Automatic annotation (TrEMBL):
Membrane topology term: Multi-pass membrane protein
Source species of the chain: Paenibacillus lautus
Single GO MF descriptor: phosphorelay sensor kinase activity
Positions of the Histidine kinase domain: 251-463
Its EC number(s): 2.7.13.3
Localization per record: Cell membrane; Membrane raft
UniProt-recorded name of the protein: histidine kinase
Name of one Pfam family that matches: HAMP
Stored InterPro entries: HAMP_dom (IPR003660), HATPase_C_sf (IPR036890), HATPase_dom (IPR003594), His_kinase_dom (IPR005467), HisK_dim/P_dom (IPR003661), HisK_dim/P_sf (IPR036097), HssS/ArlS-like (IPR050398), Sig_transdc_His_kin-like_C (IPR004358)
Domain of life: Bacteria
Entry keywords, A to Z: ATP-binding, Cell membrane, Kinase, Membrane, Nucleotide-binding, Phosphoprotein, Transferase, Transmembrane, Transmembrane helix, Two-component regulatory system
Membrane-spanning residues: 12-34, 167-190
GO CC list: membrane raft; plasma membrane
Domain HAMP positions: 191-243
């Protein structure tokens, strides 16, 4: 089976290679130990026989000095079943064997050399003539006179080696079966990882081509599950952003078309002539009003673009928040009076902060203007100050229509409008929040549908002494002192 290049192949090869090396080491060690055990068993059996036979033979070794009788007696006492006994002289010449065959060559193997030195040792190799693998064990024996002989036992290892070969084949078979199981397991494991990845890759490729309606299906676990959830969430957000963008384009097109239509209509009317001065004045006022409206829309878009590109620069200075809010109340007084809405500043605090007065005016003008827009007829808007150790908190509370929980989570998103029919670009609160954050503050909103909305702006106070209108809290320095 050929596995194409990829993660599946790497996983299978890594698992297979690790298990293969581990099995190879185990089997090699096992077979070496098994071979040593069998060979040692044969060797120990012959050595024990030599010792036992030698102890039995010693009382009779002085009974005869005749060489022929001595050799026959030694063969009778020392022979071992299924093993050839050779009696050698110190020169390595074979004097007699238990098989009766004469061996003419001189034997100089390591076991014979060790036996002459008084040790018992073994030699494993091919026997001359037959070519069989044999083990030879030699030991020197004295006949009680002047002669010294070497008893050399030779046994075939063919049967032992045959047993070892069968056990080797059995071990290899078990190893092959284990490797086959590991291979199947590693392929299954690789598929459990690769198939989800292939699915995720396929869906991601479709998303890359703009098909954001597709989703990754499957209950994946751990990192793969997190990855699929993230990609699905990304596609969902892109779809939502595209929808918001489309809604914005539709809305801004309508917003731009309305004033342009008015300007064009009155321009053509005035250009035709024949109207009295009063109508001309009304037409010019409408043109001026709609032009200001267009300028406001364009400036809002430019502000948002600057904020997105981090190009908005603040011109900071001392700002009296109480005076700033009072100025905003005057600016919106006419609009509020038309709905019978009262705007009340409830606090006596006079906080002074360090910021851009024009941008802060833009922030609170947008917040209070929204409060007026969404208040009920004859409603009340309350403005509060609250002082903390390092912050001043400004709260704008209306008792109007409120915002649902679903819309409250998105109301500060760019281009989002709770009711597109109310007009606007949907950028006002998004710009407001970013301007507050540029001042190092935060903006939060709390609302209950049908009961009103509270916008809470938290702005940092200057470091050190808190400046107040008319001087510091302890009156030691001028209000502008810390800023100098």
């Amino acid at each position: 089976m050929i596995i194409k290049k990829g993660i599946r192949r790497q996983i299978v090869l890594h698992y297979f290679l690790v298990v293969f090396i581990a099995l190879l080491l185990i089997e090699v060690i096992f077979l070496i130990a098994l071979r040593s055990y069998y060979y040692d068993t044969v060797y120990n059996h012959m050595v024990n026989h030599i010792r036992t036979a030698n102890d039995f033979y010693q009382p009779f070794r002085l009974t005869s000095s005749d060489n022929v009788n001595q050799l026959s007696e030694m063969v009778r006492h020392f022979e071992l079943y299924n093993t050839e006994l050779q009696i050698l002289n110190p020169a390595g010449q074979v004097l007699s064997t238990s098989t009766g065959f004469e061996i003419e060559q001189t034997i100089k193997t390591s076991d014979v050399t060790q036996a002459l030195a008084g040790n018992t040792s073994r030699w494993i190799g091919k026997q001359q003539g037959t070519g069989q693998i044999v083990m030879a064990v030699s030991q020197s024996v004295s006949n009680g006179f002047e002669n010294t002989y070497i008893l050399r036992y030779v046994t075939s290892l063919e049967y032992v080696n045959d047993k070892l070969m069968k056990m080797t084949l059995f071990a290899v078979s078990i190893g092959a079966a284990v490797l086959a199981i590991v291979l199947a397991f590693s392929i299954g494991l690789a598929n459990s990882i690769v198939k989800p990845l292939n699915n995720i890759t396929t869906v991601s490729a479709q998303m890359a081509k703009g098909k954001f309606n597709v989703r990754i299906k499957g209950d994946y676990k751990y990192e793969l599950g997190e990855l699929s959830s993230t990609l699905n969430y990304m596609a969902q957000e892109i779809v939502r952003s595209n929808q918001v963008k489309d809604d914005f384009i539709s809305s801004i097109s309508h917003e731009l078309r309305t004033p342009l239509t008015s300007i064009k209509g009155w321009s053509e009317t005035l250009d035709s002539g024949g109207y009295d001065p009063e109508e001309t004045k009304i037409g010019m006022q409408i043109i001026s009003k709609e032009t200001d409206r267009l300028i406001g829309l364009v400036e809002e878009l430019l502000d948002f673009s600057k904020l997105q590109q981090n190009e908005m620069k603040l011109v900071k200075g001392i700002v009296n928040l109480r005076e700033l809010l009072q100025e905003i109340m005057l600016n919106l007084w006419t609009k509020a009076e038309k709905k019978g809405v009262q705007i009340k500043l409830e606090s006596d605090e006079k906080p002074i902060i360090y910021g851009d007065v024009n941008r802060l005016k833009q922030v609170f003008l947008n917040i209070v203007d929204n409060a007026v827009k969404f208040s009920h007829e004859n409603g009340v808007i309350n403005l509060y100050f609250a002082m903390e150790e390092k912050f001043v908190i400004v709260t704008v509370q209306d008792h109007g229509i409120g915002i649902s929980d679903e819309h409250l989570r998105r109301v500060k998103d760019r281009f989002f409008q709770v009711n597109p029919l109310n007009g606007g670009t949907g950028l006002g609160l998004a710009i407001t929040q970013q301007l507050v954050e540029l001042h190092g503050g935060t903006m939060e909103m709390e609302s209950e549908l049908g009961h009103g909305t509270a916008v809470i702006v938290k702005l940092p106070l200057p470091e050190g002494k808190i400046p107040m209108a008319g001087g510091l809290e302890n009156g030691e320095e001028d209000a502008a002192g810390p800023m100098a």
